[in-house]
Design a protein that fits this description.
The protein is of the alpha/beta class and about 950 residues long. It is built from 42 helices and 27 strands.
Length: about 950
């Protein structure tokens, strides 16, 4: 590690990393560029940031801050020191009944909205990357989005800010004394800001230019409107920080004014013959007070065609000139909403009487439309030629010029042979996004792109006096053109501002202000091919908040990034030693600590399942001995489970030691020393009773009940085993079940697949499928599984079976126990709910199956108060992986644990015993199967049937 002076005394060494895998993991973000940092530092406090500023100033180092890494213009990359602030800055506080919210920069925007929504509010900025973008990046880029315009962006909704200046001064606009302290402790900056303000106010031409520029969406350069809108230097500085992209200081906390949610919405998707026709009606729609008006060209429509399942949007062929508008009105009065809808329909029909204009207030249809629109960028990027990277830009025109500007943009794409270019965006604001798939590996292609950029700037700035960047921030791609858009006087003020705040130039070089006119053509990100499962990934980062290992090792995006970085080293003649070092580190960070839960696929707009890739990599790493052992275990399932049960019984005497710190320490050390071969002992791992033989036959049965291996071996945490509790419920309901034939020899194979033992998993699937097919009378009887991950695995057998086995599987009707209880047992029964206040943890499999809502509905049928934690995610147990890598569930559960502990609930339920064990250990609350809640209501008399 390089000489870090006093930095290591200020920041723990485990948060200062220069190992290869940490550096390469942060070499890419969602944008167009790649820079390999020398150092990655995880800052967790204002004190850390101040220490970094001091160190960088003394050592002439450069610092770049990174939160969610969703920026699209190169703002979150560094070839020196990259400071990651996502991990330790997640505090938030809802204020004034939801009218404001205080946020640290590591809070994911969607999480803030989850806390605000029950109160009827949301934050103003509404970027497409809402699910993963962090507040730090949103404010630093002055993000806006679909429902923000120029009235609810970060700048307009800022109420207060705490900031750290490069000189180490910490200021908070909420402190009435801080403006004077600012004057006393940094008089040169304080006075400098006042002088710049005076120059602007005295220059009428420049003053008018600034006022006109911010009537449009505009994030090019620094927010010079701050000098006009505010008088006190501390307020001027706070608003200059908005949109400064980490080049003036660090934003450590903000308080944002929120936006009231309107309870009524009406949405329409209207298709036009051409982009120009669609754009032509927008000014009039804007005058009606439309909330959102999104435009999509033919390429965008083609990309999303298979993602919209609304019956009003039939899957038809898209003509090359076609376009569409996605429209929405929002109101709190139904009569007003109806009036707006009627006016919009009449307005469009007056010009184009044959167009279908159907507004819907149905929630699911609306949600589907907007989800797809938000994910349009990654969806379209997935259609790009293999190995190309994606340029994402957003320009803005006056709405009255939009139709002509669109026509000119399309001509520009054609002239430079960008045949797959796509145009979409917030047309109501004149804001257009466009994406290009580029391979700039040749000099000719780079020259073509350079000339395109020059012509595009001429079009936007000279012809239409628009904004080169509307909401994505200036970044590296537009830094050479800031002066071109603003003029020399305004640009001179921006340069003076940068020198005033950052005189040593330590913050984010070549972003916003750059002396290199070619900076936008350098450090272009290559996308080498590594595996068809992930090659479509554009590294947008939408997957990251869903990943249980994101605070421990790597995220799904970073796993893909490391594979690409290793491929680059291999293909470009890089160091073999570096490749070997990365490969060795990737074993633990990329493979061993991946939960493989698949939630990344749910978060990914194009369903990239990095967990599936990791399982394939585990399979490739398995040697013949491991494969032989796996096959032997599968061939002797009954014996293997008996051995495990006996082992758990034999270990019961040490359960009394399990809570002692010394025992935990020794156990953890052994687990680490063994490289994850010795599991962490958990006192909840107790043997259950042997499965009793079941009476009954196929002719009398209503279902086949397939108890999982886990529930046949591990104690449920309740006096009754799950099979016993389920049997009671079925008897009460007058239903009869049978076990599959030779049930004690059956295993669904999920454990084998997770460990990369594909042959054993395949054989288990074949064996299980035949047994279930025969036991269910060829699929006549439904098959009920009592562990959600196993249910999901059974439902995915089409990925590993073929021929006759696949034909048998397709005849089976597989149901999760929670689903069966909801649909069959309680469907026609109205019960008196228990008084319990219960917490529900839907497993990853529930969410991937789409059964989490049904699970929640089941719980609400039985309990008066059901709480689904705001930050519910993967518990990190991943079957038994959490026992071998206990640090995985420890870090994965932190957000959920904090909330659960504060709720004071009486009962806690889930649908997988291993998840329940992990959650019980983390929260110190007893998590049980949802079957026991139903049992309490129907059998134990805690609830009574009202109508049977």
């Amino acid at each position: 590690m390089p000489n870090l002076g006093n930095l290591k005394k200020q920041i723990p060494s485990n948060r200062i990393r220069n190992d290869l895998i940490s550096r390469h993991a942060y070499a890419r973000d969602a944008g167009f560029y790649r820079l390999l940092p020398e150092l990655v530092v995880k800052a967790e406090s204002v004190k850390d940031v101040s220490a970094l500023f001091k160190y960088a100033t003394e050592k002439q180092r450069k610092i770049v801050f990174r939160a969610g890494g969703t920026s699209l213009s190169g703002q979150a990359l560094s070839d020196d020191i990259l400071v990651e602030i996502k991990g330790g800055w997640r505090s938030m506080a809802v204020l004034d009944g939801g009218q404001a919210i205080s946020l640290e920069p590591g809070v994911v925007a969607a999480h803030a909205n989850l806390h605000l929504a029950p109160l009827g509010y949301r934050i103003g900025p509404d970027p497409g990357s809402l699910q993963s973008a962090c507040i730090g990046g949103i404010v630093a880029n002055n993000a806006s989005g679909i429902g923000s315009g120029t009235w609810a962006n970060s700048y307009q909704t800022l109420r207060a800010m705490e900031m750290v200046l490069p000189n180490g001064l910490v200021l908070n606009t909420e402190n009435p004394l801080d403006d004077e302290r600012f004057h006393q402790q940094a008089p040169e900056i304080y006075t400098g800001l006042l002088n710049l303000r005076a120059r602007i106010l005295q220059n009428r031409q420049l003053l008018k230019r600034i006022q006109e520029k911010y009537k449009l969406k505009n994030t090019v350069g620094y927010g010079l409107n701050s000098f006009i809108d505010f008088e006190r230097p501390i307020e001027i500085l706070a608003h200059l920080m908005v949109g400064s992209e980490g080049t003036l200081g660090f934003i450590s906390k903000v308080t944002l004014k929120t936006v009231a949610l309107q309870p009524l919405q009406a949405t329409a998707f209207v298709r036009f013959d051409s982009l120009e026709k669609a754009a032509g009606v927008i000014p009039a729609l804007k005058r009606l007070g439309i909330y959102a008006c999104e435009i999509l060209d033919a390429a965008a429509l083609q990309a999303v065609l298979g993602h919209w399942h609304d019956n009003t949007q039939p899957e038809t062929i898209i003509s090359p000139d076609e376009a569409a508008l996605l429209l929405e009105f929002q109101e709190n009065d139904q009569a007003m909403l109806d009036q707006q809808v009627a006016q919009a329909r009449d307005l469009i029909h007056k010009k184009y009487p044959r167009l279908k204009v159907a507004f819907s207030q149905e929630k699911d249809a609306r949600d589907n439309l907007w989800k797809t629109r938000r994910e349009l960028g990654p969806i379209h990027a997935a259609t790009r030629p293999p190995g190309t990277t994606v340029l994402s830009e957003d320009v803005c025109f006056h709405p009255k010029h939009l139709a002509k500007a669109i026509k000119d943009l399309k001509s520009l794409f054609k002239r430079y042979h960008y045949s797959d270019a796509v145009i979409f965006g917030h047309a109501g604001d004149g804001n257009l996004h466009f994406k290009l798939s580029l391979d700039l590996s040749s000099e000719r292609a780079l020259t073509n792109y350079s000339e395109f950029m020059e012509d595009m700037v001429t079009l936007v700035v000279d012809k239409y006096d628009g904004s080169l960047k509307a909401e994505h921030g200036t970044g590296r791609n537009m830094a050479p053109f800031v002066e071109r858009e603003w003029g020399s006087e305004a640009y001179a003020i921006m340069k003076e501002l940068k020198d005033l705040l950052d005189p040593h130039g330590i913050l984010n070089p070549d972003v916003i202000i750059s002396r290199d006119p070619q900076i936008h053509l350098k450090h272009i990100k290559p996308i080498p091919l590594v595996d068809p499962l992930v090659d479509a990934c554009i590294e947008c980062g939408l997957c990251e908040p869903a990943c249980p290992s994101s605070d421990l090792s790597l995220t799904p995006r970073q796993r893909i990034v490391i594979l690409r970085e290793m491929e680059m080293l291999k293909s470009q003649g890089g160091s073999e030693a570096e490749h070997h070092t990365l490969n060795q580190a990737f074993q633990y960070k990329g493979i061993d600590t991946c939960a493989g839960d698949g939630l990344c696929a749910l978060a990914c707009p194009i369903n990239i399942d990095t967990g599936r890739l990791v399982k394939n990599l585990r399979q490739e790493s398995r040697g013949p001995i491991s494969k032989a052992i796996g096959q032997a275990v599968q061939n002797h399932t009954r014996l293997s489970l008996r051995v495990i049960r006996s082992g758990l019984q034999g270990l019961r005497p040490i359960a009394v030691l399990a809570h002692r710190p010394a025992f935990k320490g020794i156990n953890k050390a052994l687990t680490k020393w063994s490289g994850g071969r010795i599991p962490l002992w958990n006192p909840l791992l107790r043997a259950t009773r042997v499965l009793k033989r079941q009476q009954g036959n196929m002719e009398e049965a209503d279902l086949v009940y397939f108890p999982s291996c886990v529930n046949r071996v591990i104690h449920s945490g309740h006096p009754l085993s799950i099979p016993e509790a389920f049997a009671d419920i079925l008897a009460y309901a007058g239903l009869h079940s049978i076990y599959p034939q030779q049930v004690k020899d059956l295993c669904c194979g999920l454990g084998f697949q997770s460990k990369g033992l594909a042959d054993a998993a395949h054989q288990a699937a074949i064996h299980t499928t035949h047994a279930l097919w025969e036991s269910s009378d060829g699929g006549r009887l439904p098959i009920v599984m009592d562990t959600s991950p196993c249910t999901y695995h059974l439902m995915q057998y089409d990925q590993i079976l073929s021929g006759t086995h696949l034909a048998y599987w397709r005849e089976l009707k597989i149901m999760d126990m929670a689903e069966y209880l909801h649909d069959q047992v309680l469907a026609d029964r109205d019960v008196v709910k228990t008084h319990a206040r219960v917490v529900l943890h839907p497993t990853c499999s529930n969410m991937r199956n789409g059964l989490d809502q049904k699970l929640e509905s089941l719980a609400r049928k039985c309990a008066k108060t059901v709480i689904r934690p705001t930050h519910v995610g993967c518990c990190g147990m991943a079957g038994d992986r959490g026992l071998f890598y206990p640090e995985l569930p420890e870090t994965a559960n932190l957000p959920e644990v904090a909330q659960v502990k504060s709720l004071g609930a009486e009962k806690h339920y889930s649908t997988s015993r291993m998840c329940e064990i992990g959650l019980s250990s983390a929260t110190q609350q007893d998590y049980l199967s949802i079957v026991y809640l139903v049992h309490d209501v129907l059998i134990n008399g805690k609830g009574q049937v009202k109508n049977d």
